[in-house]
Amino acid sequence: MKFRWTYVWIVLLLVIVFAKWNSFASLLGGTGVTEAKGFSLAAGSTVRVMSIGSSVAEGWDDPSGGGYLKRAFASLSSAEHVKFDLVNQAKAGDTVVKIEGEYLAWLKSINPQVVVLAWGALDDLSAHTPMNVYKQQIKTEIALAIAAHAKVFVVTPPVTRASYTQYKTQEPQMVNTEMAIANTFPSSQVYVFDVFNQMKTYLADHHQTYVPYMADGWHPNTKGHALAGQLLYQDMQSVVTRSGQTLS
Questions:
Q1: How far apart are CA 119 and CA 134, in angstroms?
Q2: Which candidate, 55, 73, 47, places its Cα nearest to that of 232?
Q3: Please, are residues 37 and 75 in contact by the beta-carbon 8 Å criterion?
Q4: Buried b (16+ CB within 10 A) or exposed e, 31-45
Q5: What CA–CA distance (Å, rounded) separates 118 from 61?
């Protein structure tokens, strides 16, 4: 009996280690997607998307393209022959705490099939939002979206000058925290797209600095939004397919 119980505990330990490794290994892939399981859409259908965030997600300093989110979903619509109707609720100066009183009302009035959390972290860092509060708000936003029967896309932000200077240490911590929280939810409901680290890697691989991609200390310019939008589009396309089914 002692041997059998030991065997059971060994098996359980191996299962836990394997699960943890899969979660960790997904972060090491060639794209910024930490969830590989896709969902299917019918060609010609319309998918209502609601996004939240602050000024970068709103599209500041990209007058021709409307920002990286709008660019990414426009490209996805064209490629997949599915209309992604983006209702962008992101607004300059918003933080995870500031929208707390409005978020649930948005979910009810907009009734999105996809909710995009596109926090840039800079406004929360500037407002000194405590990390425990930041964690709880992200967790709540995801849970409420799932309860509203929406898929959740957690999108990390494009890099800015502040990513390399003012908040060189703090912003990656916020970004990694957000991704870690997202990955605690069911993988069939929550998808993580890591634009932040992909953009950093792209610049390093191409021996470029952030300077040509920035409008100011906190915002990408049109070129920066275009790069971030392309990276996000490629990642989203890897989990969105068409097979005659509607998004559920």
A1: 11
A2: 73
A3: no
A4: ebbbbeebbebeeeb
A5: 17
Rounded to whole angstroms, the Cα distance separating 9 from 122 reads 45
Number of residues that this document lists for the chain: 248
> Does the pLDDT of residue 176 top 60, yes or no?
yes
pLDDT attached to residue 75: 96
Whose structure tokens read 């915002």?
A: 219
115 confidence band (pLDDT: 50, 70, 90): very high
């709008």: which residue's tokens? 70
At 244 the pLDDT is: 44
- CA gap 195, 116 in Å, rounded: 13
Helix (H) or strand (E) holding 241: strand 240-242
Residue type, 71: R
Residue appearing with tokens 């060189």: 168
Q: Cα separations (Å) of 177 from 30, 54, 119, 136?
A: 20, 18, 12, 11
Mean pLDDT in residue range 56-75: 97
pTM of the model: 0.83
Q: What is the mean pLDDT of residues 27-53?
A: 66
Q: What is the DSSP-derived secondary structure letter of residue 154?
A: E
Q: What pLDDT is stored for residue 32 in this prediction?
A: 56
The tokens describing 71, both together, are 């660019």
